[in-house]
Write a structure and sequence with these properties.
The protein is mainly alpha-helical and about 200 residues long. Helices cover about 70% and strands about 5% of the residues. The chain has a two-stranded antiparallel ribbon with strand order 1-2.
Amino acid sequence: MEQKMSQHEKIRKITFGAILIAISLVLGMTGWGFIPLPLPIAGATIFHIPVILAGILVGPEIGFITGLVFGIFAFTKYSSLFPWFALIPARPFIGVTSYYVFELFYKLLNRQKGKSPFHLTLPAALGGITGSLTNSIGTLGLGYFFKVFGKTIEVNRAAIISSIPVAILEAILAAILLPILVIPLYAYIHPNQKNDSAD
């Protein structure tokens, strides 16, 4: 799928990456990216959506930066509850894992001649789910490992179990929204790619 980018494509990617970073800054500064919940994890998030979108549409580098913005704002919001080494490290990799899963399935679906009806939909959905689970499993896994929810394994295990429905809902949200967003935007940002018209 890698092709030599034109100057216009580079400009589009840089511009769109900057827009997604700006959106992440707005979500963080306003608090709109975080949804308070009466659970040990303290809340859910929609912050992962622009991070995943950055990874898929612009690349792993911008995905990493956008995810780092997510992690920093998560720390500023929840630093009184959890340490930085549980809140930040997994988030920069949301966009990275999303990018590589999207790329893998995009290439697999576009090997065959002709356009698959799922050539963007399925890769975007799988990339979205992967990014969301990178956030949930990575952050909760670090929390469990460092026992940030309590002093005993049992307390931390109970916190993880109570968080599973939230993690599933965030992954479902990503699976639904990412194809809706990627399909119209991908052809604009990557105009030189083959078979990239909307599904």
